[in-house]
Design a protein that fits this description.
The protein is mainly alpha-helical. It has one domain. Helix content is about 65%, strand content about 5%. The chain contains 4 helices and 2 strands; from the N terminus they run H-E-H-H-H-E. Helix 1 packs parallel to helix 4, helix 2 packs across helix 4 and helix 3 runs antiparallel to helix 4. The radius of gyration is 28 Å and the shape is flat. It starts with a helix and ends in a 26-residue tail after the last strand.
Amino acid sequence: MSRLRSRTLIAVLPALALAACAVAPPTGPTVVAMPGQGKSFAQFQQDDETCRNYAASRNQDSGAAATNASNNATATAVAGTLIGAAAGAALGSLSGNVGAGAGIGAGAGLLGGAAVAGDNAQGAADSLQGRYDVSYAQCMVGNGETIQGPPPAPVVYAAPPPYYGPPPGYYAPY
């Protein structure tokens, strides 16, 4: 039984390491700001620093949100591992090999739980970054600077499907 516990612990450790660094609060904007009309680069740099501080202050709770998201990711990965181990042990008991079933189930649960946890953590990080970017962009535009939008989507030409006329001898009554 201690062998099963040590295998489960070994399976859980990578999930804990993965989830521990999953979400961090934003450290800067991901939008492109450019100096406004008639603004010097020194004025732009001053506005940039002011707006970075403004965005950080508007999103002060992002550190707590990042910690919560990391904790949730860890819990999801651990829960997936434990559920997988339990399911594997139950299925292994049917075949008479509980230890192997639990180990396989724990591994599968770890992979599934870590995948779900990673996706949830990425969603939380994207949300925090989006809030930061909106605050930063509003401040920069309010100070007379400009924010560049994303590049336009490329135009893709698709040829129309070929036209096949009616078969020879076909008569369409009108």
